[in-house]
Amino acid sequence: MYYREVQRFNQWYFIVLHLLILGTGILILYSEYLAKPVTNPTDPEPFLFFVLLVLINIFLICIQLEAVLSEKGMSVRYFPFASEFHPWENIQQVEVVTLPFSGPGIRWSDDYGLIYNVRGIKGVFVICHNGEKYIIGSSNPKKLAMEIRKRLTRGM
């Protein structure tokens, strides 16, 4: 492995969102189970709702964008949604660009193809010999583009 970059949803506003989701669940559990006398039977729905909130939080925490440059090529993985591998001989050109859309997610653009992003407004635009195009959002797009260009000039 020559280079690896992993981005996660750990911006401050996502942390606040996680805390709000968990706080809401804890408040519901408290109001349904701890604030009532033990002799009253309670419905299981609030507990199941809390479990659902925890699972949603875990899912959001697990989402990540990973770009790996290896001896054979470049892999891009937007876990758990998408994964691609591109051999070096298929990559024609790379350049650092400002993303046409802001915000996280996988998007389609007629000009850029698929756009994988977790944070920021900069990325690496990759053009393949077969006409395929995509952008990898990056916290250090100049370094990522430089590492890709190194591999392309070596003819790997």
Number of domains: 2
Q: Based on DSSP secondary structure assignment, what is the total number of beta strands?
A: 9
Q: In the CATH hierarchy, what is the architecture of the largest domain at level 2?
A: Roll
As a whole number of angstroms, the C-alpha radius of gyration is 21 Å
Residue share in β-strands:
35-45%
- Biggest sheet architecture: 5 strands, mixed
CATH topology of the largest domain: PH-domain like
What name goes with the CATH superfamily of the largest domain?
A: Pleckstrin-homology domain (PH domain)/Phosphotyrosine-binding domain (PTB)
C-alpha geometry: elongated
Average pLDDT metric: 86
Sheet/helix structural class: alpha+beta
Transmembrane segments: 12-35, 47-69
Protein name: PH (Pleckstrin Homology) domain-containing protein
Keywords: Membrane, Transmembrane, Transmembrane helix
What's this, in brief?
This is PH (Pleckstrin Homology) domain-containing protein. This protein is of the alpha+beta class and 156 residues long.
Commentary on this structure:
With 156 residues, the protein is of the alpha+beta class. The protein folds into 2 domains: 55 residues; 87 residues, Roll (PH-domain like). 35% of the residues lie in helices and 35% in strands. The chain is built from 3 helices and 9 strands; from the N terminus they run E-H-H-E-E-E-E-E-E-E-E-H. It has a 5-stranded mixed β-sheet, with helices on one face. Strands 1-2-3-4 form a 4-stranded antiparallel β-sheet, covered by helices on one side. The longest helix has 23 residues. The radius of gyration is 21 Å and the shape is elongated. The chain starts with a strand and ends with a helix.
